[in-house]
Structures are given as structure tokens and as C-alpha cells.
Amino acid sequence: xxxRQFISWIKTAPAGERAEATRSLARAWLISDxxxxxxxxxxxxxxxxxxxxxxxxxxxxxxxxxxxTEAPAAIVQALSVDQPSVALPVLEHxxxxxxxxxxxxxxxxxxxxxxxxxxxxxxxxxxxxxxAEVGTPAAALELIENAYAELAPFSWDRIVERxxxxxxxxxxxxxxxxxxxxxxxxxxxxxxxxxxxxxVARNWLSADRAVRVATEARDRSTVNIAAVSRxxxxxxxxxxxxxxxxxxxxxxxxxxxxxxxELFDAALAELSGLxxxxxxxxxxxxxxxxxxxxxxxxxxxxxxxxxxxxxxxVSHETGFTDTLGGVARLRxxxxxxxxxxxxxxxxxxxxxxxxxxxxxxxxxxxxxxxFCDELMAEQVIAPIQQGLIAA
Length: 391
Hints:
The chain is mostly helical.
């Protein structure tokens, strides 16, 4: 009887009053102890209100039903595909929407609806993959910042591929502690390419010079990323570098000259197809024949063999550092020994000598920066120590 009167009243009531009445009816359906007949009549009235001309009425229903597991499934489904102002609460919160519903909404919806889905708690990998594949940059950003989203590695890579040129995306991803090393390296590569294109467009550098500077910066960042990577994360990074053509002789030589033996081993294992344990054994063999055979199998140029051998000899003499900074910086003594040997030899190619000279300059500058930082630190600490002694 009450529902019959409600249906008769809403035909002439103003939109605002209809919305408030609809909100009350929806709440009654959820929490009141209605008889089966009254419940069925109330659901019928609510279904009829889905056709109301005013979005305020449908918004009222969406706000009440958005978080409920007891809401009428047909009504929730209809609200989820309504206009964004109505659908957003349901898309962001409703537990009644299944993964297939969400994937379809992501594929056909606009930026607002995609963002609402991306903000959901416990977002499954399939929906994350859909957002990574077809979502707008804003939706991708919401997904990255959603701590409850189950992003698979390929979804991270797809976001980088589609939106990695955008600063907001890069910044949000790079601050994540558990971001895969391969994805981090892909972001750095995107940044390098973006900066190179920018300086060329501004005529600040020639195209060749910009590419060289960007490549060197990318390689330095790759070694930095590898310094904090271990196990499968390291192997994933190496596979990514090979797939993207970044696993070059220059990068591998930089790795060795930085003292990062783990990345050096993993790179040669990936290129040679040998188990990493076998590669490590060959590298610790002081005989030059086994090293040359390994480098040849890895497809590295023969002109670089002498440089790798001298660098390994020096590393055996000095040992490898165990600090993160130590395995990310070029070690000046190693670089200078290798450069001296190659300059006095007969087989070193000109590109290798140019590369080693750049390494030598870079290592010298890094050492100078460290020295200046230490001096400044001593200047700050000395007065404090003197004050403590006087006290």
C-alpha cells in the first residue's frame, strides 16, 4: 500500500524530493524488516526509478547501494553503466560487480569511470591488466597509487610502454620500493629518450651528441638499479636489457669496471646460455683461454677481450666492494689500468679507446666529488667535535 502511494506521488514530485524519497526507500529495502510482498514491491519501484529523468534520483540509489552486498544485483548492474555522476560510487565500491563486468567497463568507459575502477580495493590482476592496456594516463596513475591493486609484471611494463613518457607516471612509479628492476630500467630508458628529444628540439645538442649523453646516463642508472637487485629480480633485469638491445659490450664493461660482479655474471650467463654457476667458475679461472671462450660464446667483440681480461685481473687483486655506492661507481684504478693497457696494445679498436677515455673522465670526476663531499662533511663535523672536547 505504501509503495503504491509512493509510485503515485513521484509522478508529480520535484526532482530533489524524488531523490530523497528514493534514498529512503533504498535504505528501507536494505535495513527494514519488510514482508516479502513489500520487498518485491519496493524493488519494483526502485527498478522503475532507474528510468527517472533526473540523475539525482539514480545518484541517491547509487550512494545507498554502492557498498552493500545485499543490494539488488540488477539495480547495481544498471547503475554501473549509467552516466559517470551516477555510476562512480558503484564502480569504485560495489562488491557485486564481477571481474568481467569491470573489464568491460574499463574497455568501454571514459576516463572518469576507468579512474573509479582503478581506485577499487583488492583490484584483481585481470582488471589491472585491462587498465594497463587501454586505460587513460589518469587511470594508470590511480592504479599505480592503489596499494591494493594486484599488478602483474607485464602490466607494469605495459604502463611504462604506453605512458612512461609522462613525468607524473614516472615519478609515481619510481618511488615504489617493490617495483621490479626491469620496469625501473624501462622507466629510466623512457626518461632518457624524452630528455634527448627535448634537447634536440631546443637545438641545445646535436642528435648524435644527445643520444650518446642519454645512453651513458641510462647505462649509469642501469648499474645503479642492478646494485640493489638480487636473484630473480636481477635475472629479470638482464632479460629486459637483452630484449631491448641494451645489453651491449659497453654496458657489460661498465658493469665490470664498477665492481658489480653479480650483474657481470648474470649478463654473460644470459648471452652465452650457460648456467651462472658455470660462468662464475670460468671468470675465476686465471687462464685467458677460458675467459676468451666465454666472451666469444657471449657474442662480444674480440677487440674488447683484452679490456675484460685486465679488468678481471685488477678486480682479483683489489677485490670487489660490498657497498651499494661502490658497485654503482666506476672504479678509477681499474679504468686507468685497462685504458693504459689498451692504449699501448695493438688490438684495441678506436671505439673501445674512446669509451674507456670517457670512463676514465667519469671515474675521475666521481672521485673528485666524493673527495669534496668528505671535505665538506669534515668541515661540518669538526666544530661539533671541538665543542664536545671543550665541554
